[in-house]
Specification:
The protein has about 110 residues and is mainly beta. The protein is built from no helices and eleven strands. A hairpin with a 6-residue loop joins strand 5 and strand 6. It starts with a strand and ends with a strand.
């Protein structure tokens, strides 16, 4: 299972850090990612990191503002979000996957508003 936390209400230009902790499996074997769902239900892969080489990828809309990381020892992943904009508002889901397994967190709501 994955447990996501850290969402909340923040003003434009502010920062939040999302966390996602695994139970029952080890992060070191998985590719990890954050996916968000906009209020209109559209999904976007925000960021991902590969277990094989630690490489990261970001959507163009968050590049330079968001950063994904993992603490393998604690089986926790993070999404540091800076310079937040109103269009970042949505429910953020964490994901851990291999070719044979796929885990999702329950989602944490991020609202960017003044």
């Amino acid at each position: 299972q994955l447990q996501a936390s850290g969402g909340g209400l923040v003003q434009p230009g502010g920062s939040l850090r999302l966390s996602c902790t695994a139970s029952g499996f080890r992060f070191e074997d998985f590719d990890l990612g954050w996916i968000r769902q906009f209020p209109g239900k559209e999904l976007e892969v925000v960021a991902c990191t590969r277990k094989r080489n630690g490489s990261t990828n970001y959507s163009e809309s968050v590049k330079g503002r968001f950063s994904i990381s993992r603490d393998t020892a604690k089986d926790t992943m993070f999404l540091q979000m800076n310079s937040l904009k109103s269009e970042d508002t949505g429910v953020y889901y964490c994901n851990a996957n291999t070719s044979s397994s796929d885990y999702w967190g329950q989602g944490t709501l991020v609202t960017v508003s003044s």
